[in-house]
Every structure is written in C-alpha cells, then in structure tokens.
Task: structure prediction
Amino acid sequence: METPCSSGSPGPDPAGDPTGPDCLNFRITAVSSGSKARAGILRTAHGDIHTPVFMPVGTLGTVKGITPEELESMGVEVILGNTYHLYLRPGTDIISLFGGLHGFMNWKRPILTDSGGFQVFSLAKMSKITDEGYAFSSHIDGSKHLLTPENTVDIQAHLNADIMMCLDQCIAYPSDHESAQNASDVTTRWAIRCLKRKNELNIQKNSLFGIVQGGMYPDLRRRSAEELVPLDFPGYAVGGLSVGEPKNLMYEIGESTLTLLPDGKPRYVMGVGTPADIVEMVGFGADMFDCVMPTRNARNGQLFVNSGTINISNARFRTDTRPVDEDCTCYTCRHYSRAYLHHLYRSRELLSYRLNTLHNLDYYTRLMKRIRNAIEKEDFPAFKRDFYRKRQTP
Result:
C-alpha cells in the first residue's frame, strides 16, 4: 500500500527530515562511536526501510527462486529491479497494466531500480555511447534501442520505483585518467537531464538518486561529487566499485567518496558485495547495498555462514547431519541437513537452488539486523572485531 504522499498530499511525514520535494525522507537514528557507522529510517511511498540495508536483486521482477511472500517473511524491506531487463521484457506497457512493478510481481514493499546503464555496458551485443545516450542492440533478439537520461526516468516511473537511479556511464577497470574523466563528465550531464525530466513529470512518489563516478581517481571522485551535490538529489550512490579492482583500492575509493556525500542523505554503494565488504563500507558511513552474490552463489552451491562460506558440493558434507549453520534459524537450517543439501546439489534438483537461496538471503538479512543493533548500542567496532574473529574455515 502506498503512503498518502504518493497520491498528491503534501510532502513527507513532518516527523522526519525531508531531503527534497519527494515522498522519500531519511532520518538518522543512531551513530556508533568509534566509526562512521550510522543507522537510519528511509521513508518511501511503500513503507519504511531501516538502514544499513541490503537489497536482494530481482533483475526480472523476481528474486530468483523465491516468492515475495518468503522475502517478506524473512524481513526483507526493499528489493532491486532492473530497468534494462524489464524494459526489454516484458516491457513497460505490460507492467503499467498493473500500476507498476509492485502490482505486477505482488511485492508490497519498496523497490529501487537501477538505470540500466551497466547492463547496456555488459550485456548488449552492440552498444555505442554518445552524449544523447546509449544506442544498443538487445541481447535477446538484436533489436535496436536507445537509452537516454530522459527515457530512463520515464521507464522507471512506469515501473513505479520508489527510488530511481540516474543514467550514468559505466567504465571498466583499469581505465586511464582521461577516460575516467570523460565518463564522469557524461554522468554529470546526464544527471542534470535526468533531474530535469523527473521534475517535468512532477512525481513525488518516485525519488531520484544521483551517482558519483570517477573511476579509481580520488580527484575525479571529488569533482563528480562537487558537481552532483549542489543538484540536491534526495540520495546519492557510489558507482563504479567492485568492477575488478583490488580490494584495498575499492575500500580506499569507497571510503574517500562516501566522505564527500551529504551526512543527512542516504548513501548507496552499488554492486557491493561480500559480507566483509558490507561491514567495511558500513564503517565508512554507507547505508544501502545490493549484490547478486547471495542468490547467484547459492545456485553455485556456496553458502554463507558466520565462519565464512562453505561449498555444499564438497564430498565431506555427504554424511554431515548438521544444518548449514547451527546458529541460523532460517527455513532451510530448521528443516534440512548439509547431507540433504549436498545430495540435492549434486543431483541438480531444483529444490537445491531454492533452499540454498533461502539460507543465503536470510544470512544477509540477519547480518544487516546485527549491524543495525550494534550501531544502535554504539558498539559497532566491537561487532566488527567479533565478525572477523569468527571468520575461519569451518
């Protein structure tokens, strides 16, 4: 159910701190001493999101193998949809029949949609970037398309995303300084056009976030932030991380970029990542995360546990009567053994992918709850030490 501000009533809840002329507002509720970790509440047209938060990836309007009801029961508050994929199939004309993606997939909570730029960069058979946008051939049938800042906003508005992302230019790692600067400049120009189009549509329920780019160059990251922050987006994302760079460089650029973003607005680190990546970035002040890792790795037999990960296909689990993680209370761990999950995976049974995914998503959801609790108790540094102490090979 949408909140009143999505149907034309004035502004966000006055009890919060509004971050712009949108339905969305963000209120920081706790900051942990000894770090920059903070907890907050992000209010949207489809409900509140407690941050820091991990958003499962629902590329095609589904988190693979899991029902929306199962996601809701484990405490997932927001999911991510993909503009590129949903635009190509089934198309916004179909999704609009249901009033947007929420009605189409029967998900009642918030949705964030990415702009589709990364998918054009990585999936399209042929793509060409100009100042107008991305011209590309569909990876499905080769049909020709043009993705512009304006129609990206239009598509996401048709999807009725609570949080929309500006179209940005993705850049490979490694890239030279000139290429990174050109991509950052394009990203800024496109952000201005996205914001203009959003204002033309006069929509409050669909908030638009800007994306800071600049490759692995601190000077370009600073320049990108200095260009985007005055535009007063209700939230900001750090793009272009976790694209193959060394881990220490990702942390260095992530930390320095997050410090450039406004304290009172949500900070979203895109495409990150592992549990350790999330813990580190939370300590730098990040609020939002997404990654395909818990679902994709589940389908490949990798399960997340407090001590790290296990590969359920390993022969040593053939007679293991224990649950995946004895400290876990997810559906999979309550009902099934490692031996059974090993059997399902080695037999390539469909149930394997479902049970593995249920566990991994529950692990990530519980991890974020533990992080929030630690921040609220002002002992995030102690939580972080305990997190790494437990991460040994089981």
In short: Residues 350-376 form the longest helix (27 residues). The chain has two domains: 4-117+144-291, 299-394. Residues 4-117+144-291 form a domain with the TIM Barrel fold (CATH 3.20.20.105). Residues 32 and 140 are 47 Å apart (CA to CA).
